[in-house]
Specification:
The complex is a heterodimer of chains A (about 525) and B (about 270). Chain A is mostly helical. Chain A has helices at about 1-20, 20-50, 55-75, 95-110, 110-125, 135-165, 165-195, 200-210, 215-225, 230-255, 285-300, 305-320, 335-340, 355-360, 365-395, 405-425, 450-480, 485-520. In chain A, helix 6 packs antiparallel against helix 9 (about 215-225). Chain B is of the alpha/beta class. The longest helix of chain B is centred in the C-terminal third of the chain and has 16 residues, at about 185-200. Classes of the chains: A mainly alpha (about 525), B alpha/beta (about 270).
Chain lengths: ~525, ~270
Amino acid sequence: MVALFARLKWSLTTGRVRAAPTRGKVAVALGLAFGLLISGLLAATFIALRTETDLAVPVIGSFFTGQLLAWMLAPLIAFGVDETIDPRRFALLPLRPAVLQRGLLVSSLIGYLPVFNMVVLVGAAIGLSRRWDVLPVAALACAVQMVTCVVCSRAASTSMATLMSSRRGRDLGMAVGIAVVVAYTGGSILLNTQRGGDPTGALGTARALLWGPPGALAVVPGALLDGATGRLIIAVGTATLFLLLCWWWWHAALRRSLVTTPSTTAGSTPARAGDLGSAVASSVRGTALLVAARDLRLAWRDPIRRLPWIVVVLFAVAWPFVVQGEGAIFAVVLGSLLAGAQTANHLGVEGSGIWLHLVAYADSMRARGEMLGHAAASLGPGIAIIAAGLAVQVATRGHADLLPAAAGLCLSALLGALGAACWLSAELPYAMPQSRTSIFTSSVAGQKGRSAGAALAVLGVGAATASPAIGAVVAAVTVDPAWGWLALVAALVCGVPVFVGLVLLGARRYLARGPEILAVVSAGDRA
Amino acid sequence: MLPETDLPAYPDSVAPPAVVAVALRGLTKQYRGRAVVDHIGLDVPRGSFFGLVGPNGAGKTTTLSMVTGLLRPDAGRAYVAGVDVWADPVAAKARMGVLPDGLRLFERLSGPELLGYLGRLRGLDAAVVQRRSVDLIGVLDLAEAGNTLVADYSTGMRKKITLAAALLHSPPVLLLDEPLEAVDPVSARAIRTVLAGYTGSGGTVVFSSHVMALVEGLCSHVAVMNHGQIVAAGELDTVRGGAASLDDAFLHLIGADDRGGGDLEWLRSSPA
């Protein structure tokens, strides 16, 4: 039975590649090569630490802790990526939980990510072996680390399987994803502010982690060599006890999940619901207001639409603090580009739901109004967030004289990206998975290239539209801040026409290509 | 990038007479060189309850998709209430209500929000939309759903809210693809009552179904599709002919009346 599970996972892993078009196969090969390169570099780093006995154990022990956390968080953030993660798929098979658990353990060790992990752990095993005769023990410790990661990850994902199939669960996933981004940004800011400082604090933290379950495994080879029996017993005991606890947790969660009905999503129904304003689509303005109101309502209710806006806030407000020097205020422009990109592929977001618009009207007035409405739903919040980001920079780091230049730059980029997003929604639409099992999966198999191309084009047009403003920014920084006002003029003279032109072009394409767009985006219904 | 497409090369045709609600003339759709709808012609009389029946893959959904403007035909014309759907889509879409099969709705709107949005998107006055929405929600027994999101609706509720959206602008023609598929009996009764009232007041209903008993009980006219072609069409009694039921006539028309259940001896001999 265990071999059957291994074959199932192998078939799932290789089947995706076989079914992919040539471009997809090339992308997988490149991804595999990149993953091996990164994991190989990490392994080489650990091997290089072999002679640095004071550093090797805390660094590798910290890696063990981080690796375990990553394995636990991955299913929460990207639930649905691995079909075997959800135990309810096996609920109707005549399998005992113990057999299922062993099968799932083996299947979890098959795939690209386990291979990358194993490459790194081989490096870790060598790095922990001060003398070659202790290498088998270090290898065993690393193997236990791999199994611990898998068991702990499976226990967490099985416990959350029912929850993650609901919107509330995906809200939780979104919160975890944001926490990871915030932690990363916070860590970057901290590292920037303490550049050149004493690293002993970090080393102290790393040494403390060696007393925890995964970190303790890094201590085992050294303790054996040093004859530190007490430390060895504590380390082995901690790691073993943790593994057994995780195994029991997984087993209990598995038994429960096989007989538990999935949670309903009714609990997330909005308590207060009202109409979507009073606008009527009898004019371009009326249509735009109606569509914008709908988009904003859906963005508020749908975690998959909310998450990107929170990322925009992070990049407009927090990210500029990572940038050093007086040019930090201009880093807000990254938030501008991302705000403009929020309208990208708006015709694909609802999957085949677009038919409701296609059967309702076919006139250019409402097509223009709809495009403008989608743009307005991003333009309003985008301008507010960018204004907040600029205000925070001026308030905390000064340089108010550069505000006109920064505002012009951001507005140009926002208008350009927004216009391109509207046009490309009709010109280069792509299907988005409507099963929404992963909030970070934005396109379906076979359309990844299309979605990547559209995203790059949106950012590229935004950057190109901002290029006249960039000239004014350079003059403002190097000659006189008064030149910054020219950036605002550039936004009006260049950004507005680009925005309007691309929105109108998008409306025309939408009207002409409605059935073809529906055919493309409907593929998301089945993904 | 989507390819450039123009209106299909329509053949010369005669415009349908005024008594015809839906007319198809040489309507054709091909996928990878295979015609899934093959030059079909059909007249649906005004005020009729018209059933479009056929086995899976016969081309019913493809036909209705082309008539409703959701799928571009390779050739032919489709008229709804005298308007060419692909030559004058603005006028045609105002004259039809559509209930497709298997397509999503705006899942995170509630039923009343969805109707309010779609009504005003069609340019109806907000007060009119509000009044009609309340009426339709009441008649279709959706009031209890309150502000529940469409995502949380059952299959029957989804069909009913889509039917409500199709009726909201009071079109002369309704085009419904499997409106009663996977619908519970209570919802089915509500839908049938509304549709019967609609045709009673002069509206035309065209709907596809696999369920012969349903078609026989509801329809005044029927067309049988098989392999992308209309193999029989007309008044129900005419199509049924001398057969005991429409089911028998249908199986005879598509050449499936001699198919048995096959030899599954093992099914009766193996307890495990």
